[in-house]
Amino acid sequence: MAQFSKILRKTDTKKRLSVPIRFLRSLPSFKLGSHAVTFEATDEKGEAWPFQCSIRKTGQYPKPVLTRGWVAFVKSKNLQVGDKVRFIKLKNRATAAISYKVRAEKAIKISGATFGYAQI
């Protein structure tokens, strides 16, 4: 099982989500010459969310980001700066099928300080 989580910053909530480069190995393969791949992740309610992960066309560092579908997810979950998102890749042992989960977590704040996160 591969996963990553990230505390959201302003750009993550308004435009795109920066993805750790190590998570690229967990995504479906990019077609030869392509700089984007589409995958679907299911939220805690079972709703499917299509996302597109893009990388730079040139350069040494690919700088992966989630673009298409990401802002709609943020708006649907009412995510804000300081909240957290988690992506999980699962493999069914019986069928070898790959699936992805996405989890949104709201920051629990007391007097402006974050004390933890609650899944929404």
Automatic annotation (TrEMBL):
<protein>
    <recommendedName>
        <fullName>TF-B3 domain-containing protein</fullName>
    </recommendedName>
</protein>
<dbReference type="InterPro" id="IPR003340">
    <property type="entry name" value="B3_DNA-bd"/>
</dbReference>
<dbReference type="Pfam" id="PF02362">
    <property type="entry name" value="B3"/>
</dbReference>
<feature type="domain" description="TF-B3">
    <location>
        <begin position="2"/>
        <end position="106"/>
    </location>
</feature>
<dbReference type="GO" id="GO:0003677">
    <property type="term" value="F:DNA binding"/>
</dbReference>
